[in-house]
Amino acid sequence: MTKPKEDATVARESSIRTRAEVRTVELRGMAPLMFDRYPGDNDTKLEWWQKVYLRPDTNLLVLPLLNIVSFLCSHNTNSAPKRLRDSRKFKKIANACLSYVEPNSFDGSEYIPIERDGKPIEMGKPSAERDEKSGLYLHKATARLEKGIPNPKERPVLPLPWSLTFRYTFYPNKEIKEQEVKNLIEEGGVAIGLGTFRGVYGKFEVARWE
To answer: Quick one: which of 202, 209, 206 has its CA closest to 63?
Structure first.
């Protein structure tokens, strides 16, 4: 008796495990952290100290979760895959990170507290060039645009020490291994960092992964 052919349209059970791996990740600063928050339009002018990220209705310094997502997944800016992996393959790696890596704050908000010695860093009442409570200070520089047009910039910088601790969820899959994600974060922490003027400011090391 002839065995009937298997219906090619019948879906087979996926080998991808659905059990997520949840970790606690701590990033410890190796260089001061520079901010340059965009106000939402090009007409609004901010004081230097208004360019930091604060948790809504508080003076606590935070970093948006989307900054971590961009660090791992962006195609257009200097993400870890784009900077550190083969130019022919980095988009697949970035897309895999976007699909299977999920950073979350412990309180469920869109922000990660920036801490010093295990406590959230709070901004006080900044003066013309410094905030004594947090240590934030004003950095002034002038970039040159096309045709040599000067573009003066005033940005806040948070000195060391600083750290970020967040929950990280990894969904096992066929496209990327968790060790590669960890490698990207570790290598990118030195090569790229977080915040603005990355590579000079915002460098970090992975202090905890458990």
So the answer is: 202
Domains of the chain, earliest start first: 21-124+158-209 (3.30.70)
Can you tell me the distance from the alpha carbon of 79 to that of 40, in angstroms, rounded to the nearest whole number? 22
Helices (H), 47-157: 65-73, 80-84, 90-100
The model's pLDDT over 135-159, given as tens digits with 9 standing for 90+, comes to 999 999 987 777 778 888 899 999 9
- Rounded to whole angstroms, how far apart are CA atoms 67 and 188? 13
pTM score of the predicted model: 0.88
Cβ–Cβ < 8 Å for 32, 134: no
Cα 53 to Cα 114: distance, rounded to the nearest angstrom: 10
Count of positions (residues) in the chain: 210
User: pLDDT tens digits for 107-134?
Assistant: 999 999 999 999 999 999 999 999 999 9
Amino acid at 28: R
Q: What is the CA radius of gyration of the chain?
A: 21
- Asked if residues 110 and 133 have their Cβ atoms less than 8 Å apart, the reply is no
Query: DSSP assignment, residue 192?
Result: T
